[in-house]
Amino acid sequence: MFPRFACVAKNELMNNKFFLQAAYNCFFGLTFFVKNIDDMPLVDSLLKKFASASFYVQNPSAKQQLDETTRITMEIMKEELGTEVWTAEVADAWITLLNHVHEVLADRNELKSLSADDLNVIRDDWLIVKKNKLFGANAIIK
Amino acid sequence: MFKAFPSTRDLFPKFANTPTSQLTYDPEFLAYGNILMAGLDFMVDNIDNTRVISQALHGKNWRKWFSPNVSITQQLEETARVFLEAMDEELGSQGIPFAKRSRETWTRAWAHMNAAQAFAFV
Fold first, then answer.
1. B1 belongs to a structural domain
2. If you count Cβ atoms within 10 Å of the first and of the last residue's Cβ in chain B, which end, N or C, has fewer?
3. Which domain holds residue B46?
4. Cα–Cα distance between B84 and B91 in angstroms, integer?
5. How many structural domains comprise chain B?
6. What is the pLDDT of residues B55-96, one digit of tens each?
């Protein structure tokens, strides 16, 4: 998913500008959600723009990856804040927010994996379409 | 793409003076159409493993394929739209309706393909 730092050793990531850029992007997103937590329609409208398959690996499903992201985020928050601040009440509030974020994302049709039937539809249509030798040229002109 | 983003035509300087109506009679232009089809063929073959698509495209010169005046993401989205329109016309011309089920599936397929391309190019 991150070809720019796919080959960078784990212990070198913190010095890699592309890795840091990805981290800042992630942090920016979370900051936006927290700042606008009292305006969920605004948060949802932004989230829908992030509902792209590019944010997920092929397997497991987007929903499973989102669930795992919640688990990791909660773990990091607990580590960062310490048990005195990270009370059960705080954890509940965070999980409510993250679950909402993930529900909006996972509901987006674009993220749903392609089933075997979907693949058949695609391949059948494609076989028909590519019989026309001008299809590619016509598509460029469009 | 020429109609959707006229600046795309600048990627093909050889055809700058060829009227659009004559392009499909130009063997060299048809060759570009075939290159596009080969690329799409590759993506369709690997639609269930888009990482292969990203890896194949990674490091390729995006300037050959995208107009510099419009964001790549926007051009990818527009390509998907144009492609669906072309599919609709092509299937329709063969008496096969582009059913709602097919359109939805292709829309999702393009989301996956574009995501793979975005990772390689953006």
1. no
2. C
3. 6-121
4. 10
5. 1
6. 788 777 777 777 777 778 788 888 888 899 999 999 999 899
